[in-house]
Amino acid sequence: MSAGRLSRLVTAVPFAVVLGTAAPATAHSLLLSAEPPPGLIQQRRSPDVILTFAEPVSAETVQLWLERVGSGARIALKPKATGHSVTAPLPAVDAGVYEIGYRVLGPDGHPVSGSYRHAFWPQGAPPPPGLDGLNEPLSSEAATPAGRPIALTASLPLVGLALAALILGRGAVLPGR
User: Fold this and answer.
1) Which of 28, 62, 18, 55 is nearest to 145 (CA)?
2) What region, left, alpha or beta, does residue 144 occupy, with left being phi > 0 and alpha being psi -120 to 50 degrees?
3) CB-neighbour burial class of residue 121 (10 A; exposed 0-12, middle 13-18, buried 19+)
């Protein structure tokens, strides 16, 4: 292998590695944990909702609500945001399956919204309706198309390989020429 071709290879490999393993930047405040936890059946009512996000959230724009599944009636909660956490007192509720919903703005200004379900079922009470849908997956939505980060991530290795091929191909000597 010639010295020129070796130097091009040494230059191309780091580009291919960096581009092939890079992930898109996600500066969105994704939900990391929640209390009461998603999918949990509690015998004692939680006094507060506590949500923890990956990024700090803007205290001025936090929205948090509680809805008994099937009722269609949302109760607006009074959240307080500090850094990565959002906390709000939960009202006294009857046995049932409840959805907790949120909408926050991260430091990049992008809104993130989502919801999850949990149940309050005190000992001795009849089973509340809606327990069959309790373990539905956590819903979370950033205000950007979901396919864009996936497509970007999938295309980066191809870009890295194409760049490596271009750099290596410039000095390649084809047989018979």
Assistant:
1) 28
2) beta
3) middle
Place of tokens 């430091």: 107
Which residues does the chain have with pLDDT short of 70? 1-28, 136-177
Phi, psi of 38 (to 5 degrees): -60, 140
Q: Distance between CA atoms of 5 and 12, rounded to whole angstroms?
A: 10
Please answer whether residues 32 and 61 qualify as being in contact, where contact means their C-beta atoms are separated by less than 8 angstroms: no
Q: How far apart are CA 112 and CA 159, in angstroms?
A: 30
> Coil, strand or helix: which one is 133?
helix
Rounded Cα–Cα distance for residues 53 and 73 (Å):
26
Q: What is the CA radius of gyration of the chain?
A: 25
**Per the structure block, which two tokens stand in for 117?**
């379900």
Please check whether residue 120 is in contact with residue 42, taking contact to mean a CB–CB distance below 8 angstroms: yes
What predicted TM-score, i.e. pTM, was given to this entire model?
A: 0.63
Give the tens place of pLDDT for each residue, 91-111.
999 999 999 999 999 888 889
